[in-house]
Amino acid sequence: MKKLYLIKLLFLLLFFMKGIQADAQGFTASGTVKESVTGNPLAGVSITIKGTKLVTTSDASGNFSIKINSKSAVLILKYVGYKTIEVSLSADKPAANFNMEEEISSLKEVVITGLASSIKRSNLANAVTTVSAKDLTGTTQIQTADGALYGKVSGANIRMNSGAPGGGINIQLRGLSSLTQASAPLIVLDGVYISNDFQRTGRASVTGAGGANQDDGANRLADINPADIENIEVLKGPSAAAIYGTRANAGVLVITTKKGAAGKTTISFGQDIGFGRPLKLMGVDNWSEAKINTFFPVARRPIELSRFQSAVAANNFVNYEDYFYGNTASLMNSRLSIRGGDEKTKFFVSGSLTDEGGIVRKTGFERQSIRANLEHKLSKDIVLTVNSNYIRTSTDRGFTGNQNNSGASIGYNIAYVPNYFDLRPVNGVYPTSPYFAENPVAVTDNAINNSLVNRFIQSFGLDVNLFKNERSQLKFKLNGGIDFLQNSTKVYLPDDLQFQRGQANPGDVLVGRQETMNTNIQAAFVYDWQVKRVNMSTQVGMVRLDFKNNGLFNRGRGLAPGQSNIKQATVQEVESQFESTQSDVGLFVQQQMNFEDKIIGTVGMRWDKSNTNGNANRFYAFPKASLAVNLTNFDFWKINAISQFKPRIAYGQTAGPVPFGATFTSLGGVNIGGLLGSTVATSVGNTNILPERAQEIEFGIDAGFLNNKILFEATYYVKTTKNNLQPLTLSPATGVVSTISNEAEMRNKGIELGLSGTIVQKPNFRWFSRLLWWKNDVLITKLGIPSYTTGAFGAGLGTFLIQQGVAPTTIVGTPAISPGVFTVWGNAQPDWTTSWSNNITFLKNFDLSILTEYRSGGDNINLTSFLTDGGGTTKGWFNDDNKDGIPNGRQRPPSPFNNAGRWVQDATFLKIREVGLYYTLPKETLSKTFGNIIQRARIGISGNNVFLATKYVGYDPETSTFGAQALANNVDVAPYPSSRRLFFHLQIDF
Amino acid sequence: MKKFQIFIFSSVVAFLFGCNPLKVKELTDPNNPSEASVSNNASRRQIQFLVTGLEQRHKGYVTNICQAWNTFGREIWYLNASDPRFQTDWLGQAGRVPDAAYFGFGATGGGSYATPYQAIKQGLVLIDAANNSGALTTQEKNALAGFAKTIMAYQYLIPANWLYENGIRTDIKDPLKPGPVRSYTAALGFIDSLLTAGYNDLNNAGSVFPFTLTAGFNGFNNIDGLKRLNKAITARVAIYRKDWQGALNALNQSFMNLTGPLSAGPSHSFGAPPDGFNPMFYVLDANINTIIVVHPSVIADATPGDSRVAAKFHQRSAPVIVTTDATPLVGTHQDKRWATNTAAMPFIKNEELILIKAEAHAQLNQTTDAVNAINVIRTAASIGNYGGATSQAALINEILYQRRYSLWAEPWGHRWIDARRYDRLNTIPTSFDQGTIFKQFPRPQAEINWDLYSGG
User: Fold this and answer.
1) Domain ranges in chain A?
2) N or C, fewer C-beta in 10 Å, chain B?
3) Angle B367-380/B392-406 helices, nearest 10 degrees?
4) For the whole model, what pTM was predicted?
5) SS3 assignment, position B127
6) CA of B380 to nearest chain A CA: how many angstroms apart?
7) Architecture of domain A129-282+327-408+447-657+684-785+828-858+907-989
8) Residues of B in contact with A503 (CB under 8 A)
């Protein structure tokens, strides 16, 4: 009900805001704007008069008129995603018709390259990918912004940790920059360094799975409403991101939200209704008396046989995969935005409601978001921008994945339950499972795993023109912001669950509160000047970032029946409490030189210090330099078919931050027998620790053919990292296990190719296609410490080899070749990835978009199969391929059987990520029915992850039981299966 | 307007420089005190915290040893349906043998290696902190040193018994320059001398232990009690060293009492959070599939009427069955020694001392004394006096058999060590699980790596 009320309120607001008109004198210029391919009128096109502040927008029929106080004027027509038109009108010829062409090449778009400056894409020296709103959310509805980047960014290895609702995505740009940190990009949203942490939920503690990385939590980018995003710029590596200094080792995502626009206020309302179904299920095995006699020990066989026989008699077999995962998720999204303003003040206000269920019962994701973006000219030379966003997300991700002993994981549990035993409740009583420690139906019905986030993101900017003349201008830019987020988590296993009843203190609840406060401020002077024919832009500035985190988790065990308040617990415990703070300070200078758009060069330097470093007051320098040459802009260029040819080269350095606490040698607090004790820490701080450092050189060519109808982009990069953090394991006999060290070095080499163009452009039919292809190779070039294995569940089940001269993604395991040296079984890194996107406009009003991604190679460690083999439920368990009398489930190749190699499986896949078909209602129909109230109406159907082709045995070749981390992010342990999502859409603009 | 701009600009500049945005605060750990805070002139409270910290570290090994070593000696099975490797790897199924980073121990040796050494390190830090503190008298410093060395000696025995012939480091003062690896025999000699040093410290420590110990040390929380504990551990070390007379000498100064309760002895404290629960406790007949069960051979070999069997083993209403990709295992009995999950766990007790006495006498061919000691145990177990042969071999057989039931599943893995002492590992049955009996573990990978790194 609350949501309905919100919508009503927003509707009310927007009716008040309508109808701001401009008044002037002179001749009246007028015209009609149409879309060049479809011939449909374009509403909301912004029309400005060059040299004046006059502005208007086209109406629903594409018509506009504007009074001009002179005899002639140059009109500039702008519309997002279309080529800008400039045309002269005069009192003699006051009216015209305009056809606007869609801007495919995007060469003119502006890319934010520096902290205080931007550059035209055609002059860019780096392969920066810009994902526009249309690309991001134009085809289908995706829960989170990072999920909407799949297949749209070359060089990005995006991986969904599980299919649970509400996010949980790991992006790695251009391979690995770190062995121990997540290698995830920095995210800057409207100038705010926002938190993208995977915060602890506590599920892994309660289920016994292990550390917080096995919580299957969401990353907090999930809070951002993707529909608010105007574009995402992806700075993939140090050469593009150098000016961001520390924290930019793994690249930067620069997210810009939508802004207001001068002119008539437009109100947009969008509604999605959809459903989700499991993308793929593995299937379960049937049982026979022969199989029971093989699988179970002698003493157990009689009862199993009698259970089996009664199931046969009653024909009562339960497919537990279908039962738990085969549900239909209901997916609902509502969005409302109001955009408008005049030449002084512009605003964009939006509200959105997401209420999406999961394919597992009682799971789901709700997000409510309100945003107000304001821009106001205080004077001719001072512009103030203020963006405010409040978000509330509530996520129920259920119980899947790893567990230990508690049985509180659906997939883990049902791996052991034969289909002839019925776990479903009878008269409210859940049968006790004789096969595992818990009845997973009871867990699904009655347990809680909720994370509730309240979050404010506030940014501000102040742009001041301090000085301006014909040849130069000096600007001052101040901006900054706050990201405050509070995450309240609750994981609850009721006292009457099977496992809990077997505990000394039945019932378990873990309640957490985490608060994150990020603040940042940046001040810069930008001086644009000219030296003869060279445009110079000089900037100097400083940046300061402050991050504060704190968390408190309380646990109660031995709960009163049905109670989840910790005060109702027999054993009440402060489970953990932590605080952390860190501050970074940076100074930067950058000099850009542009010789008539022919030769564009940039040099820059950033100096950073951070108080998590060994030396808090030492500045580390990060240089950058780049050069782009637009050969086609020179007079000697005579090949008309090639409209752009730009060789480019860029170099830069960045850092990866030292984690909080790396310098501390602490005494831990422990309690025994009612006394407080201090214990010597098992890791020694390193007071000389340095940040990780990366340097990258990238070079490539951007080429445009046939008037930039076809664009080709090729980039090669070499990114080398040094001072990589890794634990130096000491002799454990010293009582100290490790200290953090800086000795490792890595190298990533890769290629990124892009080819896009309009294949067909005819009246009534346009086909735009884009092909991306990329690959990355990572190698440890220096380790500095003895080689070791790390990650996943040890050598018996596949682990990772960290050794000089091999990729850190190398999977090794039993059998050992010699003591400590294991067999190499695979490599987690994909060989290459390609994506193909197509947009087809046909029959005037239909738009069809399809995005396909193919990832070749890359191995997973599939321990879901390990579990189902252990429980006899793998499909085909009882077959005997080599006819030696031992069933397949007990004898997995490669020979010698049952070593780690059996679980290392190729995760190659083809996915149709997005497909959408939209129909824009003809203007005439709308006008006839609704008059001029509705400017534009669009309906459509779409799908997300509609198709998967893979030989991989698990639910989804993309999975990570350990969440987002540099290594071992490909381990499959009974995850929440991914879903195929289908939608009906309605979009109305008023 | 110009004025306005200048105003804004200058106020921004004033703001930026007024609070010096280039300054970052030096970080100190907001969550914990630093180790450096106790290294010089620690207060009495800080010393107390280190003492309690040592008690905490002292019990760190319990879970791993209880589960793993008792499995190696087939006193128990640790059935764990969630992770088959507790069965396949720990039982040595399908010919598995320990490697340098074996499951359950990892590259550092975990609870059988890294953890006991952390207790030893804690002891060293405590001794240093005490010596550098102006708040303590010499007598108090001696008391702390004596206590710490006694506990450290106990802890050294754990890695020594785990690696056995592979040897351990005994000099660990400098984390970046640990001493050489010494043989099992040399390590036991070192441990014995450490106990002697601790005893000498306690001899110069007056009568009152100046700091608080948990209830687990009740009866031992004074200098006399700690000396008796020191000698009890010395006796255990002595039989490992085959120093039979030394064992008898130590027993005489220990808390052994032939007529006292067999269960007397110090224990590890457990409790509800913030303390930790007793890791051996499982609710009787719980419908769970991760549980310690009594090894079938222990039930099969029991003497009828043995009250230890009735006291320690509970026959479950439904057996626990765990299937892995090897043989399924069926557990019919579980451990019922612990009344609650907060019950304290003895780490050396009178019953063991009497059995040490019996063994030492038997080895010295003091048959009557040996039989008398055996009969103390047999009487308590309600199985009557010993009536078998009194040859040395027969007595040792009897003593080892009684040790299986008297010291069953203690946090030490007695049967594994005993069978190895007498070269009888092949008498431990593997027929129930088709496994392998391990003799010892290789040096952990982290140790091998350290030697590589430090150029050793």
Assistant:
1) 2-100, 129-282+327-408+447-657+684-785+828-858+907-989
2) N
3) 30
4) 0.91
5) helix
6) 30
7) Beta Barrel (2.40)
8) 283, 286
